Amino acid sequence: MKLNIAVLAGDGIGPEVSDQAIKALDAIALEFDHKFSFNYAKVGGAAIDEYGDPFPQETLELCKTSDAILFGAIGDPKYDDAEIRPEQGLLKMRKELGLFANIRPVKAFDSLLDKSPLKAHLIKDVDISIYRELTGGIYFGKKEVSQDGNYASDLCEYSKKEIERLAHLAFKAAKTRRQKVTLIDKANVLETSRLWRRTVTELSKAYPEVKLEYLYVDNAAMQMILNPKQFDVILTENMFGDIISDEASVIGGSIGLIPSASIGDKYALFEPIHGSYPEATRKGIANPIAAILSAAMLLEHFGLFDEAEIINYAVEKSLKLGITTPDLGIKHEEISTSKVGDFIADFI
Amino acid sequence: MKLNIAVLAGDGIGPEVSDQAIKALDAIALEFDHKFSFNYAKVGGAAIDEYGDPFPQETLELCKTSDAILFGAIGDPKYDDAEIRPEQGLLKMRKELGLFANIRPVKAFDSLLDKSPLKAHLIKDVDISIYRELTGGIYFGKKEVSQDGNYASDLCEYSKKEIERLAHLAFKAAKTRRQKVTLIDKANVLETSRLWRRTVTELSKAYPEVKLEYLYVDNAAMQMILNPKQFDVILTENMFGDIISDEASVIGGSIGLIPSASIGDKYALFEPIHGSYPEATRKGIANPIAAILSAAMLLEHFGLFDEAEIINYAVEKSLKLGITTPDLGIKHEEISTSKVGDFIADFI
Ligand SMILES: CC(C)[C@H](C(=O)O)[C@@H](O)C(=O)O
Ligand SMILES: CC(C)[C@H](C(=O)O)[C@@H](O)C(=O)O
């Protein structure tokens, strides 16, 4: 298979972890006789530096002419109080590319069970797939500030269509998994949540083999810790998804392990869920696993399941052997970001 | 001291746990020569049954003429799909009584460390006080549904004044504690969050001894599990407070242990944070500790610190001796809701 991949490495540790994902993809291409070509563009703080825009036209063009996007991380403290901020690039990119579905797998790796803040028996075999709506809700509704600056508002809005297109993906995924979808909302308070409930309940009839459950977001925040094994596919709106998926990311013991896919009708982007971690930049201590697993999600997206499987297997191997960056605290010798990448690429 | 206390026991297990709180208050009155009188009114499903309104005028009147309100729990599955729902009573009550500050202490009891889903070393000595805004934000902004039902919206709004009055309480509390306030928001996305940041940053200058930190809500949801000891006072808006405080409630091993106070300029209400737990109603298995600790918060509110201290001490004693309801799973013999209440009252 031939794939043109846009690499938007972004800020902080973004470039160094993306490099390891590319190594893994190169190894796969070699092994399976695929042709992956990589083209680079700026995003986030790196793009503000160069273009004064965190998601410049050049970058948008490259994304639109590529088959997939490999994304690193975004965020730079030097822009913390600036008018134009790196995160705006992320939101603009999601919206302009129509990446409405953010998919995050949450798993507990056996070799890392004791790294989790949760007790091992609660998390062993946890396997959750979170479907978060990514281009609507309070993120993109009208925002206002009064002239005197003493009042502000954010509008949360949803249409049935926006809910349906994501819900279909979630139910389809559930069919291939443990046949359960949990809708997380706040239907006892929010009108948008009631729209989610109505829409998803109606649509669920087309998937009779899938069980639909409802959970208020406050309760979900508890259940995620008390009994994460109860979840199979989670379906939720943008802001609740942001909170619940980050909370869920602690289960596996490290946020440095969780990849994600952001999918739209036309484009697809793959990125680790961790941030740009500025303090770690260019120290060789950033964990590349989440970026490498994002590359595996990219392969799956194109139906290259065997290839993805090999990456996943190589990652498990590296964890089992303790070939990991210091954040996982497995071995005492220091193993760098790029050493982990090399091990995984060699293994492939 | 003479106190007129309105008892709004509400639905499900509300009445039985409230009874235990009253026992404790009666014991305190006897011991310290106070006069506490209790007057009862309906709220929630119980009030819909009788008045067709989850927060009827009679109940409002009683609240307004009382010194404090002891609240049980609200929610009844039989109204799940009804037009008028029990939770509306809760929101109406908060708004009409101006209860803008919801305060929830989160502690890990030493005798329950092994009941927590989190590892003991992470939670030992956790002592957090959450200040959640309770009468604003997306809970009370304008809600809309399109005529065809295919679009819905909820408006999140805040004014500087709403933020300031809560922030002052949080900073004052921090002064008497470990001098740290963590503001939880989503200032990288929401205009209202940026208003919170500006307002709280400005106001913090009046409390130079208190350290102010900022945390995005998604990161906060992780930090609460990874390292809850970092928190002293948490300050946040209504919806984020709902989610984060419920998440935090798992730390102590049981939601049945966490009391809360909802305070306004004129009125003050005290309630366990758990819900009405319909499946447990009248089985004698509901944990009364949260309700009893809410009574202790009531006493503190009126400056009766010694009295509150004794209740807290009695609760710790009951936990240590294993005189607890089955949910805590400490002893094998079954000890009922009212036996726990009796033990605590006798101890006092
Ligand atoms: C950086 C921020 C705007 C973003 C979000 O809230 O969506 C991030 O937290 C994420 O989850 O990708
Ligand atoms: C019942 C519900 C409306 C309420 C809320 O969201 O405020 C509850 O979760 C709470 O925290 O008191």
Characterize the structure shown.
Chain A is built from twelve helices and twelve strands. The longest helix of chain A is centred in the N-terminal third of the chain and has 19 residues, at 14-32. A ten-stranded mixed beta sheet of chain A has the order 2-1-3-12-11-4-5-10-8-9, with helices on both faces. A two-stranded antiparallel sheet of chain A has the order 6-7. In chain A, helix 6 crosses helix 7 (191-204) and helix 8 runs parallel beside helix 9. Chain A is globular, with a radius of gyration of 20 Å. Helices cover 41% and strands 21% of the residues of chain A. Chain A is of the alpha/beta class and 348 residues long. Chain A has helices spanning 14-32, 45-51, 57-64, 86-96, 120-123, 160-175, 191-204, 217-226, 238-248, 289-301, 305-321, 337-347; strands at 2-10, 35-40, 68-73, 101-107, 127-133, 143-145, 151-159, 180-185, 211-216, 233-236, 259-263, 268-272. The mean pLDDT of chain A is 95. In chain A, helix 7 (191-204) links the parallel strand 8 (180-185) and strand 9. Chain A folds into two domains: 1-119 and 255-348, Isopropylmalate Dehydrogenase (3-Layer(aba) Sandwich); 127-250, Isopropylmalate Dehydrogenase, CATH 3.40.718.10. The interface between A and B is large, with 54 and 54 residues.
Tell me the number of strands of chain A: 12
Structural class of the helix and strand makeup of chain A? alpha/beta
What percent of residues of chain A are in strands? 15-25%
Bound molecules: 3-isopropylmalic acid
**Major sheet size, sense and barrel closure of chain A:** 10 strands, mixed
Mean pLDDT of chain A: 95
Query: Cα-atom Rg of chain A, whole angstroms?
Result: 20 Å
C-alpha termini separation of chain A = 18 Å
CATH fold assignment of the largest domain in chain A: Isopropylmalate Dehydrogenase
Spell out the CATH superfamily of the largest domain in chain A.
Isopropylmalate Dehydrogenase
The tally of structural domains of chain A comes to: 2
CATH architecture of the largest domain in chain A, please? 3-Layer(aba) Sandwich
Oligomerization: homodimer
The stretches of 5 or more residues of chain A where confidence is low (pLDDT under 50) are: none
**Lateral arrangement of strands in the main beta sheet of chain A:** 2-1-3-12-11-4-5-10-8-9
Count of helical regions of chain A: 12
What overall form of chain A do the CA principal axes indicate? globular
InterPro entries (chains A, B): IsoCit/isopropylmalate_DH_CS, IsoPropMal-DH-like_dom, Isopropylmalate_DH
Enzyme class (chains A, B): oxidoreductase
Pfam family, one (chains A, B): Iso_dh
Catalytic activity (chains A, B): (2R,3S)-3-isopropylmalate + NAD(+) = 4-methyl-2-oxopentanoate + CO2 + NADH
